[in-house]
Amino acid sequence: MNDSSWGAPQTGPGYWGPADQDRAPAGPAYGQGPSYDQGRAPAGPAYERHAVEETRPMPIVPDMPDVPTGGGDNQDDRGAARLSGPLFRDEAAPQTERPAPPSSQTPQEPMTGAAPQPQPEPQPQPRQKKSAGRDLGAAIGVGVGLGAVIIASLFIVKAVFVGVIAVAVVVGLWELTSRLDERKGIKAPLVPLAVGGAAMVVAGYVRGPEGAWVAMALTALAVLVWRMTEPPEGYLKDVTAGVFAAFYVPFLATFVAMMLTADDGAWRVLTFLILTVVSDTGAYAIGWRFGKHKLAPRISPGKTREGLFGAVLFAMVAGVLCMQFLIDDGTWWQGLVIGACVAASATLGDLGESMIKRDLGIKDMGTLLPGHGGIMDRLDSLLPTAPVVWLLLVLFVGSA
């Protein structure tokens, strides 16, 4: 402290003057404590100025100009100290630092600019539906190649076409039994199934329905005996799956070979193939364009009622044309009946294999055919349609 303050005037801000002597509180802070000389007089303006300077509460008192000019009681001094303390600043901070309008407007500006962006998002969804998750180019190429092999073998040498059916049956049995073993641990014996399946197709072509039934019974017996060479655990499920596979793949395929035995057998088989393919194509085309109502969402979510209508429409039109121009003694109304029945059986066959694949937890039975999956993924609608077309053609135009 500067020594000149002892001789300063007795009035001024921050000092106690003579008029305020009655306000000075008594206590140790004003000369009664041990830090002061016992012989000195505690009263006097100079001493009071010195004590007030040492006990000034805060340097922020000059920020409050109303304190010196206010009332002279102690309550005003306490109020000034309370308003200039930290409590007053904490209460005033939310009022002075509150960013009301700017913070609420800043996030709204990019939102208004980004609002039109989500509109083009639904456009890529139909594109995924077009390809159905497959390579369309590879699927078309493989389909054309298979069609060329079938047509060539069908109209050149019928026996070669029977061999094509037998090979398809054996490959289909291998795919089915492999997936059963991988996903369910079911070991259906492949050797008796493959030998019996090929024999079943040949027997159906040579001996007709009687030969097909006899070969089917012998194949089932061979499955039962073959499985006896292994431990008995799982015997029942293995032989049950084996008998099912024998009926599902080779026995149903035998009806294609039996259609071939007629005089116009090649045209009957061609009609059967055309109607099945057209039915699948109509279901895909109409379902892709207009499909909204699910046909069997728990089995095959991609199939719709509109697709089924397209399958029936396309197959009936193709049936009229095939019966009128390809089948001897065929009529247009027979084509309508055959087309409707083919659409129903092909759809049920597709749903049946979809149920099997869902139970196994797989998408395709194999990967042999690019863009298609496996052989069984192409035989799913053909196998149940073969006995339907064979029976209707026998009823309409005979078996000769």
Question: Could you describe the 3D structure shown?
Answer:
66% of the residues lie in helices and 2% in strands. The chain contains 16 helices and two strands. It has helices at 45-54, 66-69, 74-83, 86-96, 100-105, 108-114, 124-131, 136-156, 158-184, 190-227, 235-259, 265-290, 305-325, 332-360, 375-379, 382-397, and strands spanning 294-296, 300-304. A two-stranded antiparallel sheet has the order 1-2. Helix 9 (158-184) runs antiparallel to helix 11, helix 12 (265-290) packs across helix 14 (332-360) and helix 14 runs antiparallel to helix 16. The longest helix is centred in the middle third of the chain and has 38 residues, at 190-227. 30% of the residues are buried.
Given as residue ranges, the uncertain stretches (5+ residues, pLDDT < 50) are 1-54, 63-114
The total beta strand count reads: 2
Structural class: mainly alpha
Cα shape: globular
Q: What's the N-to-C terminus distance?
A: 134 Å
Beta fraction: under 5%
Strand order of the largest sheet: 1-2
Radius of gyration: 49 Å
Approximately how much helix is present in the residues?
A: 55-70%
What summary fits the major beta sheet?
A: 2 strands, antiparallel
- Mean pLDDT level: 77
Number of helical segments?
16
The SSE string, one letter per element, is: HHHHHHHHHHHHEEHHHH
